[in-house]
Amino acid sequence: MTSPVHVAVVVAAIAVSAVCRAQDDTPGDLAHAHFLHEVPPPPVPLIASEAGFEEWQRKHRRAYDDGAAASAAYAAYADNVGAAARMQRVNPHATFAVGRRADVRFERALPWPKRHRPPAVTEPPRDLPRPTPPHVDWRAVGAVVPVADVGACAGAAVAFTVTTVASAAAKLRGISGKELVAASAQQLVDCGRRECHGTTPDAVVQSLLANNGGLLLTNKSYPWRRTSQACDSKRIGGVAAYRVTGTRRFNPDDEADLEYQVSQGPVGVTVRAADWGLYEGGVISECGRGSPGGKADYVATIVGYNNAANPPHWILQHSWGAEWGIGGAVLLAKGQNTCGVLDAPFTVGVEPVVPTLDDD
Questions:
Q1: Which residues contact 283 (CB under 8 A, 6 or more apart)?
Q2: Would strands 279-284 and 329-333 be described as parallel, antiparallel, or unpaired?
Q3: What pLDDT is stored for residue 92 in this prediction?
Q4: Model confidence over 192-213: pLDDT tens digits?
Q5: Between 46 and 235, residue with greater pLDDT
Q6: What digits encode the pLDDT tens for the residues 9-23?
């Protein structure tokens, strides 16, 4: 019989071998690798109660300034636990648990649908150039900026998705050189329109084009402050990462096309994430109740997919911090429009700040 120690040594050797092979791969090949996703533990019963809330407070050392704050926190806790219980019942491949953010009310990032009209769809090519690889993960080649945490500024999720997609495109097209240059979401929040209270990717980009000619600063020049502030005119003269030229929509409800687009680079999507707050791992296949009317309420970035997994899934980078989900990511089942992931995929056009002579 094989000993546990022997098995551990073999597993470690395989992991080291995989890393060594990855170091010899080209960036394109490495992107078609995927992060191993830990199998979530069996779910535990999710029932909201005052006793459970008090136990959770002790475990996470949470205290509140007054009774009103405690009542608001318990209301959020009860709503989150209720949502998690609903999601757990319909998602056998995922795990939801009462984690450290159970008292946080997860606000929507998109405005209510009646407040805006989606732009016209840009038709993608019908004939896809080549077959897509079975799995892709753009984090593996350093083409994805670190996971953000929007804090109380929920609308900043839109800005972070725009900068995540744009920064990846700039790196993969060689616009930012060999390095990944993180762009400033704070600039988009401060110098845009109501970005902490709900906006759209198109509104964010149009505001940038109108106010700063599309010039998007680096995050180092205009760092994230976790809140909306007045537009800092002194910082606007800082180092620009690249120029944003606009957004492009892909056809909705076309999984084959979306898979091809993701094989070329990260893609932004709108999703129904209202009930994801206590997600801890695994693959979501049903979205639960979600937002009223089943409308999108959040924006995230598809950074890859895995068709070899069971079930096959998309890999989405969210903006609730790296401690949420699987290192800040969530897995959504493919083969269906899970949580509206196919409804409105988009990318962000970028170009160098100073065009070269070879540019058209």
A1: 91, 93, 94, 309, 311, 313, 331, 332, 333
A2: parallel
A3: 94
A4: 876 687 889 999 999 999 988 9
A5: 235
A6: 333 333 333 333 333
Supply φ then ψ for residue 107, to 5 degrees.
Answer: -85, 160
Q: In the numeric block, which tokens belong to residue 253?
A: 């409800």
Coil vs helix vs strand at 174: coil
Residue 95 phi, psi dihedral angles, 5° rounding? -125, 135
Please name which of 100, 153, 149 lies closest in space to residue 278, comparing C-alpha atoms.
100
Residue 166 pLDDT greater than 90, yes or no: yes
CA distance 178 to 67: 53
In whole angstroms, give the CA distance from residue 77 to residue 62.
12
Strand (E) or helix (H) holding 6: helix 4-24
Query: Residue 125: which pLDDT band, with cuts at 50, 70 and 90?
Result: low
Cα 238 to the chain's mean position, in Å? 27
Whole-prediction pTM: 0.83
Q: Specify the CATH number of the domain 108-351.
A: 3.90.70.10
> Would the CA dihedral through 337, 311, 329, 78 be positive or negative?
positive
Residue-averaged pLDDT of the chain: 82
Cβ–Cβ < 8 Å for 110, 204 = no
- The residues, any chain, with a CB within 8 Å of residue 286's CB and separated by 6 or more, are 87, 90, 91, 338
Report the distance separating Cα 149 and Cα 322, nearest Å. 8
User: Is the distance from CB of 315 to CB of 306 less than 8 angstroms?
Assistant: yes
Query: What is the signed CA dihedral for 259, 265, 269, 274, rounded to 10 degrees?
Result: 100
